[in-house]
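note to self — DONT lose this again. spent like an hour looking for the file last time. sequence + predicted structure for the chain T wanted, 369 res
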Amino acid sequence: MTLQESLLALNLLPGLGPVRIRRLLAHFGDAEGVLRARKGQLTAVRGIGRESAGIIHSWEDHVDLQGELSAIRSRGLSLLTPGHPAWPPAFDHLPDSPLLLYVWGEVQERDSRALGIVGSRRTTHYGRTCARKFSFQLAHVGFTIISGLARGIDTAAHEGALAAEGRTIAVLGSGLGQLYPPENMALAERIAEGHGAVVSEFPINTAPSQHTFPQRNRIVAGWCEGLLVVECPSRSGALITANMAGEYGKHVFAIPGGIDRPGSEGCNELIRSGAILVTCGSQILDELSPAPPEARTPATLHESPDNREVTLSAEESRIMAQLSGEERSMDQIIEESGLPASTVASTLLRLEMRSLARQLPGSYFVKVS
């Protein structure tokens, strides 16, 4: 059995968790040593009682290792484990880092330079717009955008990175065979097809639950160099992620919101507690410098209508022809341009970033005169 298969077997065992498994690995040296250990040896490790020792000792009775390996192969997935060049080095310093990651797509070494973007599932036009624009700006200069593929802010963050033709990592709170939310399957496919990866530490058929999402959040917080909270109420999973990031020693950023908006209370509280208030991507870049070696010019972090470039791609020209001073819906633009919905969405965001178009509430767009 290979080292990777041994780690996978440990990860499949019920009821252990990454903290106790890491104690076992430290005690026995590697995953194979843990699986070969006798019950008495296992109970000598702190936190491992007789029941857990029995499960580990008879692991083949509790784990369908070959079935999981077969599912990985049939779905075109891969496993990322410590020691691989693309394994995030930030994980090496976390006591509760994942043992491994199931990967749909490709994680690259440059993805270690990452910004996490999180926020509420129930968001506003303001929140979605901020998430897309910050994500676009930081992805454009070479940072990988990490989020959780959830509805709302997470979705907008991934979309912004894709529009910038940058990289993004979606960390699931479920197994890759139980992708959640299901309506983001098309977005997940776009990410996996050359723009990053969809990853999970959970066995393939793990369903999402109230326990899996906090575990997912720690991966986002632990992987990134800095975490941006865009919009969230005073009770939110995004705040839990921000607290984790702070405990891990990461930069925590927050976008302020109106004092009369319940959906901005969490961000405003973070700022009062010491999070860095930001209003544009360049302010984050200043804190996370130096920029990634793959960074492109950061011009888009400072563009204005007076200095924007006017050269348009074929898709941009086609969509600009549909825009005017009158509001046009996304559906109208898709129908009249004849372009796929994903192409229209990403192109409109690029036009927004160049101050050539403006999005209005309700997914309506106008041309900037």
